[in-house]
């Protein structure tokens, strides 16, 4: 391998101190020391085009975010039990991006905590326990949300309260049937749950189905399932940790593409461009009783530094027109990828919305993890970073910072062409 002795020693020591639960990306792990815009630099000064990081969504180390955080950190950092204008202003600003029905904003530090809080509120509001998720969903790491994260694998207990439904499938289900199929699967899961004496409290989905393999289309297909869970007395939670904050180009939030209004919206990852900021937007009536009885305090959630980071991110998205860029550069990138895979029988599909794209590697209709693994590692050796996802680990996931421009998209397509040609 191309690993230096220094990096090999670091890998060994890392595993000694961090233990066995941690994983590194790539056959040749990457030792990064610096980031700027869409570029990452390793310890030898080599540049990599980051086409995977949706946390540094407005670009690595964006000066405006760095400045806002630094300034606030040097002024005051405390919690939400003191009056501070910034948390109120930031909540206002976020709620301004939401449908009117979502009138409160509660802050956490991670997407996991946001989903955990949303579940607690859904269960306390409905007085019910059941939750339905898609079969390869990922919603986080706490005890409660790992139960609803089947992508963690069979080792993680799911518990009797959680039921899975198949994720959409772009290859086997015609687009026009996607919505009816999802709703029918949800109805069956609710019936099965009820047969065991469990009532549905919530249906929660990542509105672009990231860990299931990325299924954005046709926009609107989520609506029948959401209508159904409400008719059955449950609430709908949109997990916007991945599609939120303008990534899809079509809308600021993923659920808006589906023409629906969630009962709760959870968010995180790109919210602070790397500074831990996350939260839940929700219908006020859902939290009325919970708020009176349970009270809520999160030591770091909503602190002035976190809110400064979050506010700066919203400013940058607006000032730099990043939703538009996600739309136009995303369309350009998708077109470029479609052009280079045309005629290949080992690529089943190129799909996506905005700057969130997937290329599905197949072999005789079945998942082709070997090709996906080859492309991911070839790109990495060639200075371009992506990863693979989905049930067969065969779906290339392309998710660059939203500041990716046309020239970099061209460079990406060239590198993909080289990787595919080398297979
Ligand atoms: N929901 C989704 C859809 C996610 O992708 C993630 C993180 N990968 C989470 C929740 C959990 O967020 P965090 O890692 O910040 O806890």
Provide a descriptive summary of the structure in words:
With 423 residues, this protein is α/β, with parallel strands linked by helices. The protein folds into 2 domains: 31-58 and 321-421, Aspartate Aminotransferase, domain 1 (Alpha-Beta Complex), CATH 3.90.1150; 63-319, 3-Layer(aba) Sandwich (Aspartate Aminotransferase, domain 2), CATH 3.40.640.10. The protein has helices spanning 5-18, 63-73, 85-95, 111-126, 143-147, 178-195, 223-231, 254-257, 284-294, 304-319, 322-341, 369-381, 406-421, and strands spanning 32-36, 39-42, 47-50, 104-108, 130-134, 162-165, 200-206, 235-239, 264-267, 278-282, 347-353, 356-363, 366-367, 384-385, 387-389, 395-398. β15 and β16 (395-398) form a beta hairpin. α12 packs across α13. The longest helix is centred in the C-terminal third of the chain and has 20 residues, at 322-341. It is globular and about 60 Å long. The two termini are 19 Å apart. The structure holds 4'-deoxy-4'-aminopyridoxal-5'-phosphate (PMP). 4'-deoxy-4'-aminopyridoxal-5'-phosphate is lined by residues 110-112, 115, 138-141, 206, 210, 239, 241-242, 268, 278.
């Amino acid at each position: 391998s191309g690993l230096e002795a220094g990096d090999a020693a670091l890998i060994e020591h890392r595993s000694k101190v961090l233990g066995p639960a941690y994983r590194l990306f790539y056959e040749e792990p990457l030792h990064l020391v610096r980031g700027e815009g869409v570029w990452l630099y390793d310890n030898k000064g080599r540049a990599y085009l980051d086409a995977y990081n949706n946390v540094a969504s407005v670009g690595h180390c964006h000066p405006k975010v760095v400045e806002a955080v630094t300034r606030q950190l040097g002024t005051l950092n405390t919690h939400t039990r003191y009056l501070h204008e910034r948390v109120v202003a930031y909540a206002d600003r976020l709620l301004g991006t939401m449908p009117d029905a979502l009138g409160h904003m509660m802050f956490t530090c991670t997407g996991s905590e946001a989903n955990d809080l949303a579940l607690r509120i859904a269960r306390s509001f409905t007085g019910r326990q059941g939750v339905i998720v898609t079969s390869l969903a990922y919603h986080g790491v706490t005890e409660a949300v790992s139960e609803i994260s089947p992508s963690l694998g069979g080792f993680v207990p799911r518990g009797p309260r959680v039921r899975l439904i198949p994720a959409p499938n772009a290859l086997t289900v015609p687009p026009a049937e996607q919505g009816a199929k999802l709703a029918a699967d949800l109805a069956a899961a609710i019936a099965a749950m009820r047969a065991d004496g469990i009532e549905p409290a919530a249906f929660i989905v990542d509105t672009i189905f990231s860990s299931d393999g990325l299924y954005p289309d046709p926009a609107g297909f989520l609506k029948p399932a959401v209508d159904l869970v409400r008719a059955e007395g449950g609430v709908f939670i949109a997990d916007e940790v991945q599609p939120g904050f303008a990534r899809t180009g079509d809308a600021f939030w993923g659920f808006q593409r589906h023409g629906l209004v969630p009962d709760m919206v959870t968010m995180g990852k790109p919210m602070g461009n790397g500074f831990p900021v996350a939260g839940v937007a929700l219908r006020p009536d859902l939290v009325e009783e919970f708020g009176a009885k349970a009270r809520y305090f999160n030591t770091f959630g909503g602190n002035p530094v976190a809110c400064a980071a979050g506010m700066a991110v919203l400013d940058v998205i607006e000032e730099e027109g990043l939703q538009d860029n996600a739309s136009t550069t995303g369309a350009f990138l998708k077109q470029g990828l479609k052009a280079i895979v045309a005629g290949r029988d080992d690529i089943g599909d190129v799909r996506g919305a905005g700057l969130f794209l997937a290329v599905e590697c197949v072999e005789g209709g079945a998942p082709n993890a070997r090709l996906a693994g080859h492309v991911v590692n070839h790109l990495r050796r060639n200075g371009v970073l992506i990863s693979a996802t989905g049930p067969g680990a065969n779906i290339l996931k392309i998710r660059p910072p939203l500041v990716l421009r046309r020239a970099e998209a061209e460079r990406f397509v060239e590198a993909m062409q080289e990787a595919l040609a080398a297979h």
